[in-house]
Amino acid sequence: MHNTQAAGGYPHENHHDAHTFSIGEDVRRTDQLLIKNLKTNKVLQIAQEIGQRPVLSFGNSSGDTSMHNYVIGNNPYRSAAFMLVADDNVRDYGDPEKAAGLKEKWEAAGYQVISMANDWKTIYGEDVVKTGEFHWLEELAEDRIPSDAEQAEQTQEDIQYVMYLGTNDKGTNKPVFTQEEAKEKAREILIRHFGGYTLQEANGGWVDDDGTVYQEYTLVIYLSDTTEEAVHAAADELIQVFNQSSVLIQAMPTRTEFYLGN
Q1: What are the tens digits of pLDDT across the range 234-259?
Q2: How many structural domains comprise the chain?
Q3: How far are the Cα atoms of 62, 95, 121, 150 from residue 126, in angstroms, in the given order?
Q4: In which domain, by residue range, is 104 found?
Q5: 3-state secondary structure of 228
Q6: What is the pLDDT of residues 56-106, one digit of tens each?
Q7: How many CB atoms lie within 10 A of CB 119?
Q8: Distance between CA 237 and CA 240 in Å, rounded?
Q9: What is the CATH number of the domain that holds 203?
């Protein structure tokens, strides 16, 4: 029986290959975000900065749903998530039709939905008058439906790497760690090398030349959106920590699709 566990965030959000800082290098500020504070990355940042699960969250787009789910899911304390819908097209540039669909979806998810049209007495103030039209920057809109061309770009050929990590010492054939310790050690290494991964537990076995049958607790690691160099760097560390002769790595072409729903 396999127990699938994922940690470290969604693998296509905040991916940075591990890098060893060398003498002579420098740190420079650029216009690139170190972390795109969106979706699962919001959860990781909250956990890092606060250190505990919040009881209230507030958002206004699908980029906030991961944060909401983190707050209201399995929370030992009374909690609530609030989501604002831009449904006022008189005082603001909202889209009532789109907002109605989002309201239904977000209420079903357990969020408290706030309507700008019905719940806000004031938006910009009495002296502010709406003029002209506003066109959202389509590339930044979270809840729009992608074009056919964009969906085609989001469906691409990728390489999935699968590592099979044994946990018996190469010399003694005895487990190096307990199963829980093995998983934790592997997680610590993987999260330093990859933006995300999937970890499965398995049991391997083989027969030695003298007929002795061996059983071995094995960790199966699935990696996408990465490079062979990064996989080998992580494997080098795993081999050393778990005292292995080698790690089996499979590289398989796969078709990746970021499915956004109907």
Answers
A1: 999 999 999 999 999 999 888 776 66
A2: 2
A3: 30, 21, 10, 41
A4: 35-144
A5: helix
A6: 999 998 889 989 999 998 899 999 999 999 999 988 988 899 999 999 999
A7: 12
A8: 5
A9: 3.30.70.120
